[in-house]
Amino acid sequence: MTLYRPFTCQDMLRFNRVNLDPLTETYAIGFYLQYLAKWPEYFMVAEAPTGEMMGYIMGKVEGRTSENWHGHVTALSVSGEYRRLHLAASLMSKLEEVSEKKRAIFVDLYVRKSNQVAFKMYKKLGYVIYRTVLDYYSSANEDSNEDAYDMRKATVWDINKTSTIPEKAVITPDEIAP
User: How many structural domains does the chain have?
Assistant: First the structure.
């Protein structure tokens, strides 16, 4: 039976195996600690009965106005040996529940255009492409920067789903509102 629990500081000593996936963005320790301090309810772990970390999700709630108050998925990763068990979908559902409790209008995330497995999963979970962000993911070779899909899912607080209707279909990273 999978245990879903809050992420702790000690988990940073145990999540390297989960982060080994080349499509998982990794951050400096301070970045993880900032999320843990500011948005602990958005930082969760899926743990095996053996105590091994199977995956995690990290996110936050943000926005300057009631129209753009939203939950954001910063990172979602499941260890290779625990894939195809619907852990990512369960973690997403838990983050969406937290967002709705905080009266978020939508939940958003960014996914590499080349990551078709993740893209298809998000689509199956009800997310739609809100817009494309050009060169969102940088690489060592500037010529191979990769575009991202900015995907959104309206919550129960957006009855008409207006938060999923883009103003602009393609933007640059500079145009992303803080």
Answer: 1
